[in-house]
């Protein structure tokens, strides 16, 4: 995240790091253009917001990090600004900026970014790192007390799966339909300890576990953990990394609003003396796999009950859990409208498959357009009618479950063996 003030208010301040792919404007294949793009974007902290542009692991990736925000409309504005600057810099170099959780149309494996830490990461993980171009949307919420941050992460464990399902935006892997809504999670599974974080009794318990992994050489350093939620090793925040790179800026803002709402609910529970349930790690991991496989278009595993439920019902439970906190920050009506818009238009994965039915060029244009425009057809955060869409289509629990993982468009692409 960009510049984080010492005065971060627990459960209020938030920021987002977005990872993007750089692709050739003609072929749509990943290209190692990060250095030029960042130079043209004048890589530095955004003067008034504390945001910044950064390198990522491979030279086909770039990152935009917002500054510290106190409200979702301000965050969404920063997200759109960062995307616009990077997209302009990419176009100037014959590239397009694409927000997708995994490479869509392939390309030669790009070299790693320069730097001593990236070199150590490459040496530690060998060939599995060579083509790892997965991109995520990382949400930070201010939690200044480290003991509280660890306890909040415990409370977040059962909600990582529906956060991933809602964000799923990586159905393709180098020109072929993977059959997953989020192939990024499959890519992440290459690395040790990836996925749902373990339940930690205290900050010391968490730190001991990380120290063992670092000292054994499993992790390069304490910042290298692959858990999808953690107390940030750098900032006074809880960092949630469940989401695929969001197709639009508004979907990234939605993810941030939901995460902040869940953190607020966790802090309220902790204030009342209620610690997180110690849910079975294998059940939580299975729920996460199901979210990656099906997204919002199939059954979900409820970690609390161990039973299969419609994915939209589990997301409805998540919104209900976060609702008191969302209401306090003025975000509840917009979140409901945004969730309804995703249900109506489809997740990023479903929209990618829909575009792919029209061919590679149509898919590339749809990806770049969503990345640059930043919006779905609903009011953006802060609009006066931000809750208008919530009434359409009935309650979340009533949403129909679409059988199978990919639907007709995805099935057709698979039958062809790849994208036309």
UniProtKB/TrEMBL annotation:
<dbReference type="InterPro" id="IPR014746">
    <property type="entry name" value="Gln_synth/guanido_kin_cat_dom"/>
</dbReference>
<feature type="region of interest" description="Disordered">
    <location>
        <begin position="373"/>
        <end position="394"/>
    </location>
</feature>
<dbReference type="GO" id="GO:0005524">
    <property type="term" value="F:ATP binding"/>
</dbReference>
<keyword id="KW-0067">ATP-binding</keyword>
<dbReference type="GO" id="GO:0042398">
    <property type="term" value="P:modified amino acid biosynthetic process"/>
</dbReference>
<keyword id="KW-0436">Ligase</keyword>
<comment type="similarity">
    <text>Belongs to the glutamate--cysteine ligase type 2 family. YbdK subfamily.</text>
</comment>
<dbReference type="InterPro" id="IPR050141">
    <property type="entry name" value="GCL_type2/YbdK_subfam"/>
</dbReference>
<comment type="function">
    <text>ATP-dependent carboxylate-amine ligase which exhibits weak glutamate--cysteine ligase activity.</text>
</comment>
<dbReference type="GO" id="GO:0004357">
    <property type="term" value="F:glutamate-cysteine ligase activity"/>
</dbReference>
<dbReference type="InterPro" id="IPR006336">
    <property type="entry name" value="GCS2"/>
</dbReference>
<protein>
    <recommendedName>
        <fullName>Putative glutamate--cysteine ligase 2</fullName>
        <ecNumber>6.3.2.2</ecNumber>
    </recommendedName>
</protein>
<keyword id="KW-0547">Nucleotide-binding</keyword>
<dbReference type="InterPro" id="IPR011793">
    <property type="entry name" value="YbdK"/>
</dbReference>
<dbReference type="Pfam" id="PF04107">
    <property type="entry name" value="GCS2"/>
</dbReference>
């Amino acid at each position: 995240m960009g510049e984080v003030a010492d005065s971060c208010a627990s459960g209020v301040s938030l920021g987002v790091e977005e990872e993007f792919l750089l692709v050739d404007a003609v072929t749509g294949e990943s290209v190692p253009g990060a250095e030029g793009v960042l130079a043209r974007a004048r890589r530095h902290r955004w003067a008034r917001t504390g945001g910044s542009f950064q390198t990522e692991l491979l030279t086909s990736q770039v990152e935009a990090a917002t500054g510290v925000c106190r409200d979702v409309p301000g965050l969404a504005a920063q997200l759109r600004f960062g995307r616009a600057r990077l997209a302009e810099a990419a176009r100037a170099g014959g590239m397009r900026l694409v927000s997708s959780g995994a490479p869509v149309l392939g390309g030669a494996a790009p070299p790693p970014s320069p730097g001593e830490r990236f070199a150590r990461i490459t040496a530690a993980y060998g060939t599995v790192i060579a083509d790892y171009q997965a991109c995520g949307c990382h949400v930070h919420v201010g939690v200044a007390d480290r003991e509280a941050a660890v306890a909040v992460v415990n409370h977040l464990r059962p909600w990582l799966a529906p956060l991933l399902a809602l964000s799923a935006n990586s159905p393709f892997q180098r020109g072929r339909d993977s059959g997953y809504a989020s192939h990024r999670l499959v890519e992440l599974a290459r690395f040790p300890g990836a996925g749902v974080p373990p339940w930690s009794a205290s900050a010391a318990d968490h730190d001991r576990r990380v120290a063992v992994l670092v000292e054994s050489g499993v992790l390069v350093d304490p910042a290298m953990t692959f858990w999808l939620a953690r107390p940030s090793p750098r900032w006074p925040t809880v960092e949630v990394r469940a989401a695929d790179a969001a197709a639009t800026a508004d979907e990234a803002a939605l993810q941030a609003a939901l995460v902040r709402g869940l953190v607020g609910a966790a802090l309220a529970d902790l204030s009342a003396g209620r610690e997180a349930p110690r849910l079975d790690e294998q059940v939580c991991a299975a729920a996460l796999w199901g979210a990656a496989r099906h997204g919002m278009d199939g059954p979900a595993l409820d970690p609390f009950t161990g039973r299969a439920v419609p994915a939209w019902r589990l997301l409805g439970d998540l919104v209900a859990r976060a609702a008191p906190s969302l209401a306090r920050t003025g975000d509840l009506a917009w979140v409901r409208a945004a969730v309804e818009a995703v249900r109506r238009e489809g997740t990023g994965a479903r929209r990618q498959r829909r575009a792919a039915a029209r061919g590679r060029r149509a898919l590339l244009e749809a990806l770049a357009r969503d990345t640059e425009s930043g919006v779905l057809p609903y009011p953006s955060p802060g609009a006066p009618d931000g809750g208008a869409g919530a009434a359409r289509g009935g309650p979340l629990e009533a949403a129909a479950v679409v059988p199978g993982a990919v639907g007709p468009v995805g099935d057709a692409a698979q039958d062809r063996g790849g994208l036309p």
